[in-house]
Amino acid sequence: MTITKRLSIVIIAIAVTMAFMPMMSQNQIYAASKKPATVKITKVSVKGTTVTVKWKKAKRAKKYQVKAGTKIVKTTSKTSAVFKVKKSCTVKVRGVNGKKKGSYSKSKKVTIKTPSKPKKPQSKEGKVHSETIAIDKDFDYGSLVEGDTYTIKAPLASEAVTFKITYLDNDRVKEGIVRVEGTTANGGYAGFARDEKANFESFYFSDSVTDDDMWKEKDVPYSCVPVDAENGYTWELKSKAGSGVNFYWTLDGTEPQIGQKDRYGSTEYFHNWDKPVENAKLAGTVTEGNTDIMGKEENDLKGKKFYWVKGYQGNNLVYEYALHHFK
What confidence score (pLDDT) does residue 12 get? Predict the structure, then answer.
């Protein structure tokens, strides 16, 4: 073969190569710019709050985006993803090819089962416990049973009272939150609560009148209801004529006493806009057949509070309400 023929062959080969190179590059660019095909999810499994999603490879997809609810939770080049969700939602997947994004797959529902709280033990027979229980900081609230009747000396209570537990919130004791409520044998109510997050502790007892009847101003022998709750602890105390009930109340944290006299002064527990109220009425009495207001001086809701009301029918305690705001 002559040199001329050889050169001709080489020139032809180079020309052919040069002719095809732009075409290959354009095909690649075209393929890269095409929208990925729609993804098809093949499996969704849930264990607790962990979700596993698998899908088939989609044409022209270089990566995949997984959407749970309204958020994209995963971007991956694989055909599966594992992630966590807090609540039930729908999941879907789409392919991504550069700046091009494919259509999302059909949504698949993910159901997150919320573990049910164990039911509190409830006594079918309604057992009556004869011993008196004193509630202190180490008391085991898990020992109380809804439906049972107890005689309980609660914090802030001046004496133990007997009532059947109808409501028991003892799931948050470690957080400083507990509430126990029930009914008395004479149709009244009793209970106590503590909430360290809301900074208060309270005890409430009414031997024969319900709180609802007091609020509805029914014909009851006695009542104690707030008259201006937004401005502070201003309460109206009523004793019906013939009821034999006398109320005794204090605003300075001291326990009300039968036959006490009205007392005036200032205390950290009663104030107006963070300043103690001078010469405020801190203790008073409402005798049978009369009505009076406890906390007449307007006081704000900031800072410590401690008001205490006791109602006696003769020497028998028939009503008590104590509320202590720590700060």
Answer: 58
